[in-house]
Design a protein that fits this description.
By secondary structure, the chain is an alpha+beta fold. It is built from seven helices and twelve strands. The chain is globular, with a radius of gyration of 21 Å.
Length: 318
């Protein structure tokens, strides 16, 4: 499925977790992984918080972000996939960096610009997206604008834009209310005093994370089956919240997934030789930071003219 979108599909899908799951599709093996960290203390050292408990702050923020009319956002995501096998002397990996910035007018208007590249210094790939109601407009890396229905984009298997919609990440605030929290107190960020809270998700939350961020529906049945053999450990979500408005100014999601396989291919035996079954492990580290600003500032989002209508997303990336 990755090959279907060429080089651009490989980069974006990889950064949106599908790179690991596509590897799982080939192997369908078991998994276990180390992951990112988060503090477990009940208070921080950088300031004092209000009388509100972390859960109260989180619930207030969830409600406030649902009522938000407009916001500017910047997303920076670094995804590193490492492969190791019994026949490889050292692990080898690929690092993908994604930058996404734009404006959201809730509930269903959006403009954003994506820039995706590899850490090796290869040329970055860019595209833009505009959402107006139920219509999605995508500018391909070649500069052409295409338009398709939002429902088609959401249901497209292997959709390379799955997970790039920053608005979906606000849903993590609701999911976080089922998890354990750490309170770091008030911290100064860019001249503002913000309450810093760390959410410690459970290890069985992977499917919920993918559904919450809009990626689950874009996966094939085989990819979703592979989730059963993909383990997630100690995923964390750090939030910096303005208690005066309850708006989130920054969120950072970190985790590591890994899938171990006992057989990548089938052993082939002939009269003269036999090929041993190989074992391997694929792990993916994800670090995604989103900054919000310009809350409720006026935003004008208009649909591009002369966009080519299509129902086949792969046409955009040919």
């Amino acid at each position: 499925m990755i090959a279907r979108y060429g080089r651009f599909g490989l980069l974006v899908v990889g950064s949106m977790l599908l790179l690991l799951l596509s590897a799982c599709n080939t192997s369908m093996g078991g998994a276990n992984s180390p992951s990112s960290s988060g503090g477990t203390g009940s208070s921080g050292n950088n300031g004092t918080s209000s009388n509100k408990t972390p859960m109260q702050v989180l619930k207030s923020s969830d409600a406030a972000m649902k009522q938000l009319k407009t916001a500017h956002f910047n997303m920076d995501s670094v995804t590193t996939m490492n492969n190791a096998s019994t026949t490889t002397a050292a692990p080898h990996g690929t690092t993908i960096m994604l930058q996404d910035s734009g404006d959201q007018q809730f509930p269903n208007q959006l403009t954003m610009h994506l820039n995706v590249g590899q850490a090796t210094g290869s040329p970055a790939l860019t595209l833009s997206e505009v959402v107006v109601g139920q219509k999605v407009y995508i500018q391909s890396p070649k500069g052409k604008w295409f338009t398709l229905d939002d429902n088609i984009l959401k249901s497209t298997t292997g959709n390379p834009l799955a997970g790039a919609n920053v608005a979906n990440y606000n849903n993590l605030l609701t999911l976080a209310q089922k998890e354990s929290l750490s309170d770091h107190g008030t911290e100064n960020m860019s001249g503002q005093s913000l309450r810093h809270i760390t959410v410690h998700f459970s290890s069985n939350v992977l499917r919920d994370l993918l559904a919450t961020t809009g990626q689950l529906n874009s996966m094939s049945a085989q990819q979703q089956e592979a989730l059963k053999n993909t383990r997630l450990e100690n995923p964390t979500l750090d939030l910096w919240i303005d208690e005066a408005t309850s708006y989130v100014h920054r969120m950072v999601l970190k985790f590591t997934m890994s899938a171990g396989t006992s057989a990548i291919g089938t052993a082939v035996t002939t009269k003269s030789s036999s090929s041993p079954v190989m074992s391997s492990r694929t792990s993916t580290d994800v670090n995604t930071a989103i900054d919000y600003s310009k809350f409720n500032a006026p935003v004008k989002i208009t649909a591009p003219s002369n966009a080519i209508s299509t129902s086949n997303i792969s046409q955009i990336f040919e």
